[in-house]
Amino acid sequence: MQSLWRDEEARGLSGLDLLVYRSRLLGRDPALVLWGGGNTSLKHQEHDFRGRPVAVLRVKGSGADLRTIGPGDFPGLRLDDLLLLQERASMDDDAMVAWLMQCLMEPQARRPSIETLLHAFVPHPHVDHTHADAILALADQRDARRHVEAAFGEQAVFIPYRRPGFLLSKEVGEAVRGAPRAHAAVLERHGLITWGSGAKESYETTLSVLTRAEEYAGDRARGRVVLGPLTQPPLEPQARRRLAARLLPRLRGILSRVPVPGEAEGPGSRVVLRWDDSDDLLDFVGREAAPALALAGPATPDHLMYTRVRPAIVALHDAPPAGEEDTDRLAAACEREVAKFADWYRLFVRKHGGAAAAADPRPRVLLVPGLGAIVAGRDARHARIVADVLRHGTQVMMAAAGLGEYRSLTLQEAHDIEFWPLELYRMSLAPKEAELSRRVALVTGAARGIGRAAALRLAEAGCHVAVTDRDAEGADAVAEEIRARHGTDRALGVRLDVTDEASVAAGFEAAALAWGGLDIVVSSAGIAHVSPVERLERSDWDRVMLVNATGHFLVSREAVRILKAQGTGGSIVVIGSKNVLAPGKDFGAYSASKAAQVQLARVLAIEAGSDRIRVNLVHPDAVFQDSGLWSDEVRQERARAHGIAPEGLEEFYRKRNLLGEKVTAEDVAEAVLWLASDRSLKTTGCILTVDGGLREAFPR
Ligand code: ZN
């Protein structure tokens, strides 16, 4: 295991800055620290608010992530006040948290880690605590103590499993004080604690202990067949992709329809899916012994909080699935397994002392041998974390099975962690949910103009957005803009030509594979052409009809197929035009194509209403800004049709509406957001005008 410590980087750093440096080094390697797991600390002298010297423990704040941690994420606590607690025989969690809060150097600091006392009671200046994969191969053993003693002798102390909290901290402190030759503590089914008199020593001890653990497990696993034969080889990549694209929306619907206590039935309990078919994972799930191992439980309490106590496992059956029928069969199997999991989970909660009625009974991980793993999260970020934790968890299981016999938390232990208020508090520190953060949208014509503004507005409301356009670079640029503002998993740039059936299908498939389904479609792609009917060329007529009418038809058809398969309703928002209700001269092809689009949307509203799929229209007028529609040529031609100079066109449109307002793409995007969201849950087949008020274009 390679040390990332660079003396030239660390030189000149001291105290808290050096703690930040060391913490980020640990946080950089996902095999050591995953997504907010692990914690680090420093004991040193500071001055309190009156200038008196005081011994202070700086420890990671609850919910902070070592990868990105900064000095402000380490609350300081008066060490003497913490050490007083060593005299106590016991202390409950509430009293412990209250005590910790009283010890804070800065009263407004974030809550310190729930493992704060673990750090306080280890009598060394620098302490690192990780749940690293390599140590868990030894710590998650039926015979963990023997392996730890064989690997480390007197250099490490072994601490039997106990839920984190006061007693565990006290036991660790006593064990470390009683073992002067030790430089590490291995916590059964939990992780590793190392320490040092300097920051570098503490960090490099972590690495050397993990390297030794890897060697030890590797030596003993050599030549052993670990998980038995591959009973379900992976499907071919193409077949996997095709099957996943069909299955994911179905599964998303199944999971989202399970009632969850405390959340509104339906939309509130929606999930976003992440499909993982990495080679390691496919190999793991396809092995004979994998189901038993996966069902044995997660590697640590930390893993448990993300993957839950066990996965659901769905058999693929024998034939490599290809067609609709196979997807139906597999979706039915998923539905059975999800229901089975929910029954089992409620029983699990009741049996171990919890209130089953209050628990979310859905699996967060589904293993499908041959296809991979499908994980469910509140949003894509959460699903990514669960998937990462799962992948590392399977590495631990395989390494542990290679060494001896993998052993996880007992069901009682798992239950007590899952419903432990302090863990629930830590989980509640995740980013707040936004209005649309469980939703997925696909927007066409989104590289510029109204489409772009709609994509940005939906993303701002938390939505995951497939930004599609015939102009792939333009779509990518808008997607990148969203990712930079709202996070890596929030947007996807997709080349999509609305006039090409295969391209439309591929665009929707990309969204389904990225997030597991679809909730919102904004049909915005469109072109214009100016000519009086008598001089209108057949080729121009065809071109405009193809994009504005046929293109919209192809997009709507694909959307409604997916939304129906998913079965959780949906919203299709169509960008129409003021021209449909109040046509102008020389705009025949455009107005006729938009009228066809609008009429099709209204028919679709009638057909899809019983599936709770809403179809609504926005009629903007004269949105010039950043528009692909208003080319120089169209501007000149429209100006001529109105008998004015081209540079006076925008002003002409502004003055002709009742409010005397210029209509912007953002104005239209607000209307799109309203129709896309549940705020308009009772509205379908509706025309919403965003035109500054035009009497002749009032819908009737
Ligand atoms: Zn821990």
Total strands: the figure is 18
Count the DSSP helices: 26
How would you name the oligomeric state of the polypeptide chains in this document? Answer: single chain
Bound molecules: zinc ion
Q: Residue share in helices? A: 40-55%
Keywords, separated by commas or semicolons:
700 residues; alpha/beta; seven-stranded mixed β-sheet; 18 strands; elongated
Could you explain the architecture of this structure?
The protein starts with 6 loop residues before the first helix and ends in a 10-residue tail after the last strand. Helices cover 46% and strands 13% of the residues. It contains 26 helices and 18 strands. The mean pLDDT is 92. It has a seven-stranded mixed beta sheet, sandwiched between helices. The site of zinc ion has 6 residues, from loops. Residues 115, 129, 131, 164, 190-191 line the site of zinc ion.
Summarize the structure.
The chain has 700 residues and is of the alpha/beta class. The chain has a seven-stranded mixed β-sheet, with helices on both faces. Strand 1 and strand 2 form a beta hairpin.
Write the layout of secondary structure elements.
Blueprint (H helix, E strand, L loop, with lengths): L6 H4 L4 H14 L10 E9 L5 E7 L16 E3 H5 L9 H10 L13 H6 L4 E5 L2 H7 L4 H9 L3 E4 L6 H12 L6 E4 L3 E6 L2 H23 L15 H20 L15 E5 L2 H8 L3 H6 L5 H7 L4 E2 L10 H28 L13 E4 L3 E6 L2 H24 L7 H8 L2 H7 L12 E4 L5 H12 L3 E6 L2 H15 L4 E5 L5 H15 L4 E4 L14 H29 L3 E6 L2 H4 L6 H21 L4 E8 L11 H11 L6 H8 L8 H12 L10 E4 L10
Parallel strand pairs: 5-6, 9-10, 12-13, 12-15, 13-14, 15-16, 16-17, 17-18
Antiparallel strand pairs: 1-2, 1-4, 2-3, 4-7, 6-7, 8-11, 10-11
The structure holds zinc ion (ZN).
